[in-house]
Design brief:
By secondary structure, the chain is mainly alpha-helical. The chain is built from 2 helices and no strands.
Length: 66
């Protein structure tokens, strides 16, 4: 997520909410149960699989729009 030097997000509340929902949906799809708030108990592999799947879905969406 984009942030400025003060650590605050540059995203609108609507964009933040959409990204959060996308992350939660993607985590469910790959079989990882995220809880609201801090998820520090995730392994790097689990976190990477969520992020990787999110990128894959975003690329597929961009290719469809071309």
């Amino acid at each position: 997520m984009a942030s400025n030097s003060s650590g605050k997000s540059n995203l609108s509340p609507e964009a933040k909410n959409a990204l959060h929902n996308f992350k939660m949906e993607t985590a469910r799809e790959v079989g990882i149960n995220l809880k609201e708030g801090y998820n520090g108990d995730l392994t790097s592999k689990q976190a990477g699989s969520i992020g990787g799947q999110m990128v894959k879905k975003l690329i597929e969406k961009a290719e469809q729009s071309l």
